[in-house]
Design a protein that fits this description.
The protein is built from four helices and no strands. By secondary structure, it is mainly alpha-helical.
Length: 129
Amino acid sequence: MKHPKHLWRELVTEIAAFSLLAASIMLLWRHNLPLFIVLLAEALAALSLWHDRHDVICFVVIAVMGSLAEVAFVHFGVWQYTNPTLLGLPLWFPVGFGTAFLIGQRLARTITGMWEEMKPPRALTDREN
């Protein structure tokens, strides 16, 4: 188990990464190529922080599956993007979606670790005495 101070640093890092991702999209959504470049840099930075095999595989799988789902949603008129590039999606969408998932699953791990740290020690049963 990680040290509680380390978990707090992780939590702050993850919240900052998510805030940067959201701010980038909100500020640059009208400009597909610059936003794609910014999000790609953010994704590479996130993957340099969190780069075990699980992280990389999840990033790729979610980026692809999320994009395929979005293509279907747009195709069937569920919603549309204001500034699409290809198949109804903006160029930056797969990278943004994969990065959001990467940050979200890391955030969930950190919060779970914090909850585990807050649990009182398990009482010994009669068999363990």
